[in-house]
Amino acid sequence: MTLEERWRKANEEYRALIKWSNDEAEKISRQLALEGAIQGLDTNREAYAPVHEEYKRRLLALFDKYELPNKPKL
What is the pLDDT along the chain (74 residues), one digit of tens a residue? Predict the structure, then answer.
């Protein structure tokens, strides 16, 4: 598989990863709204932390899976 093909496949999986993380964040936001929590840029950061950590883990795994260069340092 060429580097271009690997990037293409990784990009497809990355799009699914973005959708997953957005969906998870939306679930958290809805739950916080139901609880009456104040929402803003710096509030409830800890509620979103598990999604962010899983996002980073999966992103780095994509670079490893497809042996892509320029792996980010997250």
Answer: 999 999 999 999 999 999 999 999 999 999 999 999 887 657 888 999 999 999 999 999 999 999 999 999 98
Show the tokens assigned to 17.
């990863």
Does 73 reside within a domain? no
Report yes or no on 60 lying in a domain: yes
Within 13 Å, how many C-alpha atoms sit on residue 41's CB side?
0
Q: Which sign does the torsion angle of CA 72, 66, 12, 30 carry?
A: negative
Are 21 and 51 within 8 A, CB to CB?
yes
By residue range, what is the domain housing residue 42?
Answer: 3-65
Q: Count of domains in the chain? A: 1
